[in-house]
């Protein structure tokens, strides 16, 4: 192997031993560095692929690489606008809460991992209509639509996150099946029923903009579900081992049948798959 190649492999193999996460204790510095490194990676990847295209102009299907940087630029511009203009609490110090690794989007929570962990590929099918409450960038809905062929609506109070979701939906070619609305869930006027509703970490939000009465919230979701519809519900960290939350959940047995529940991510989240009981007894 050539000297250069050996050097590159050596640097690559030793990168994990830099232990950056323990050295950089300040979370905003870590996030800034993570985002900067990620952007560098995306630029290099895009540049490399476009170079390959120059070498092999007969290659097709490279829209992904020609549009990747444009999409990333649009996402970053929106993050800057959020930092400048958004009046409420900003998650993750202005970087993204939702990551989308397969298209190089840096964030705290991996959309692809959650899609697998929540079993969404088995639960959702082409033709289903999904509602994602407090969807943030809507990446869970966008990815689910991309993977399963479903359609759906996502609602979030933060217009900057919604704009990011629209850029990504457009990029992935699912924008015609997805509606992302920048509005409060409290004001949402649905146009029909949903087969599946996502409520992921959205029933008691850190920004204090969505803190409904729990029973009323689950009742409202029940009314939005089609017969036999499913609520996929992710808890907040503070709900784990919280007797009050356990009691609240127990009360929902009158509205829903439990399909499954599991603790995830080192006891930071609990996931429930709850099927609508219809008619309610
Ligand atoms: C903890 S994040 C969860 C995001 C997403 N559901 C997920 O799990 O990836 C809570 C989200 O709720 C949104 N939100 C807060 N108040 C809201 C409201 N009244 N209506 C709609 N969305 C709201 C926030 O903007 C934020 O994106």
Which key terms come to mind for this protein?
Rossmann fold; 281 residues; alpha/beta; 2 domains; 9 strands; 7-stranded mixed β-sheet; single chain; binds S-adenosylmethionine; two-stranded parallel sheet
What are the segments in which pLDDT stays under 50 over at least 5 consecutive residues? none
CATH fold node name of the largest domain: Rossmann fold
Structural class: alpha/beta
Distance between the termini: 72 Å
Mean pLDDT: 92
Rg from alpha-carbon coordinates? 21 Å
Number of helices, counting only DSSP H or I runs of 4 residues or more: 10
Main sheet: strands, sense, barrel = 7 strands, mixed
CATH architecture of the largest domain: 3-Layer(aba) Sandwich
CATH superfamily of the largest domain: Vaccinia Virus protein VP39
Task: Tell me the fraction of residues in β-strands, as a range.
Answer: 15-25%
Envelope shape: globular
User: What string gives the helices and strands in order?
Assistant: HHHHEEHHEHEHEEHEHEE
Strand arrangement in the largest pleated sheet: 5-4-3-6-7-9-8
Number of domains: 2
CATH class of the largest domain: Alpha Beta
């Amino acid at each position: 192997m050539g000297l250069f190649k050996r050097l590159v492999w050596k640097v690559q193999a030793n990168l994990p031993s830099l232990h950056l996460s323990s050295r950089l204790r300040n979370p905003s510095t870590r996030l800034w560095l993570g985002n900067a490194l990620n952007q560098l990676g995306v630029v290099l990847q895009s540049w490399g692929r476009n170079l390959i295209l120059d070498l092999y102009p007969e290659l097709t299907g490279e829209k992904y690489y020609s549009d990747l940087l444009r999409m990333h630029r649009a996402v970053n511009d929106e993050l800057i606008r959020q930092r400048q203009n958004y009046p409420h609490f900003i998650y993750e110090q202005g970087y993204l809460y939702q990551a989308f690794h397969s298209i190089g989007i840096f964030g705290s929570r991996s959309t692809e991992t959650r899609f697998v962990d929540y079993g969404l590929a088995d639960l959702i099918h082409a033709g289903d209509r999904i509602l994602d409450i407090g969807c943030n960038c809507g990446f869970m809905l966008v990815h689910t639509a991309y993977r399963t062929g479903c359609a759906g609506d996502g609602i979030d109070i933060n217009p900057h996150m919604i704009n990011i979701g629209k850029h990504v939906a457009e990029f992935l070619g699912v924008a015609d099946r997805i509606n992302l609305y920048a509005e409060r869930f409290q004001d949402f006027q649905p146009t029909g029923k949903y087969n599946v509703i996502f409520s992921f970490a959205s029933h008691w939000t850190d920004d204090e903009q969505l803190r409904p009465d729990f029973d009323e919230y689950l009742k409202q979701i029940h009314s939005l579900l089609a017969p036999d519809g499913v609520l996929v519900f992710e808890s907040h960290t503070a709900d784990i081992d919280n007797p009050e939350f356990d009691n609240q959940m127990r009360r929902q047995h009158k509205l829903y049948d439990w399909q499954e529940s599991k603790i995830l991510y080192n006891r930071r989240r609990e996931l429930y798959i709850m099927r609508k009981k219809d008619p309610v007894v």
